[in-house]
Write a structure and sequence with these properties.
Number of helices: 25
Structural class: alpha/beta
Radius of gyration: 29 Å
Distance between the termini: 61 Å
Strand content: 5-15%
Oligomer: single chain
Shape: globular
Helix content: 40-55%
Length: 541
Amino acid sequence: MTQPDPLSPYYYHHNFLCLMDLVSERDWDLLNHAERHWITTFQQLSFKAQCLLIRLLMRRHDWFVAEKLVYHELGDLSPLLDELATQGYVRLTHEAATEVVLNLLTKPQMARAYPQANMPKSASKAQWQAAIQATYGDTLTSPTMLIECLQPELLAVFLLLYFGNSRQDLSQFVVAELGIQTFEAYPLRQSERLFHCREHIDHWLHLSALNEHYWQAKKAKQPDIILALTDQLPAPYAWPPLERKRQRLVNRIAREHERHANLDTAQMLYQTTTQPPSRERQARIAIKQDNIDLASTLLGTMLRTPHDEDERDIAYRLAKQKAVRQHGRLHDLPETYTNEIHTEHLVLPLHDRVEWEVADYYRAQGWTVWYSENCLLNALFGLFFWDILFMPVQGAFLNPFQRGPRDIYSEEFCAARQPAIDARLSDIENARELIKQHYAEKHGITNDWVHWGVIEWPLLDAALRALSPHQLKACFERILFDRRHNRSGQPDLFMCRADDYQWVEVKGPGDTLQHHQKRWLHFFNHHAINAKVTYVQRCTQ
């Protein structure tokens, strides 16, 4: 993909064409007649008309006041708007729904245009709007030309095909156009695209609309709207990516029912999903309803076959509750880490950030210290598996701006790459050479696991010399088991001194270990990896 001139005022035109070219080449067979016509007609527009249309599409709204639109690089917009109107991309009008007009006008404009509303100048804009609605009805004639962008829903289809989700938009191109990020090169072929039938696209957009209703209601603190979405939920889908998306929404709605004490409805909804935290919430509801048999069954399943580290940890804590423990069904729990976490206590002045002061303390003891937090193990993981992370897999890479595969947190990630993962882990003895090679070849290229601003080769080299191949393999396998949760919770500091090393989690006054931090520390100690917690109190003198 060629890079646009970041100094060009038309950079957004280049970016949009990149999107449309990829969709047209790879996904043409998935588009309906209206979408194909839109693309074909767009290609026939003049350059500046294309630019104006892109500008309008980037503004996230469908209605605009013509006189407020100013794009200096495009000059006079009148002939461009006429061209767009002739080709059916916009509608130029003075009449629109009252709500639309009033949302676009300022209060002084409303006062001049609709005097019969007879409101005092001191009235708020909302009061003016209500009075005008009551006086003039549901349709208004605007005092200024309005622009309606037609068929804006088609852009949602193009963006979904390009990005593979309904969150990203054209602003994503900005990080690439200025060279802020450099992305790995990988093929964008039809054989590896995410969608292979039109029905999946339509269902995805429907679910995205329901999700948007949920988040808007959540933001507006309107739980009744969220609860009402229950009746709009679609039946389960056979296609896994779509079904995961549906289940996430179901879990959110079920949680809202739970908060409103609609426990039976919440339980019924949770039982239709397998995505976390479904089993956890079902167990909590069962305990609350004194159905300990069901709770014990659920907790036993979670302990034997957990979805992830977080679910297993929660299951252990719930199994220890008095009601469950006395029930006696879970007396034979699977083994978990019970080793003691090593600790140290310091008293320091704390004039600066506590991690920095602790790092300085250890440096004074002769240690070479890096404040790496989660970056160190994640970088080792990302560099060791670099080519596997960026391996062409169906649905994993859809556009040139990805920090990693789309399916990184899905259940299918490892299954789709298992032979390559197994082969790489079997070659763990050569980890240092491979990581060093990838570090040199890929330095600066965006990878969601490698934070180049923190990672430097001396830090990686020190860690690779400290950990045995067996320990390094265990760390990688732990991350692979739960990529979402185990990428965090790692200790703040890594340090070495002569042949010695240690990881140190720093806790300032009043701070306590989080569950995911405890899990990493227990894991380290279980595998004889030097790690501890340093608790710091402020010096009172």
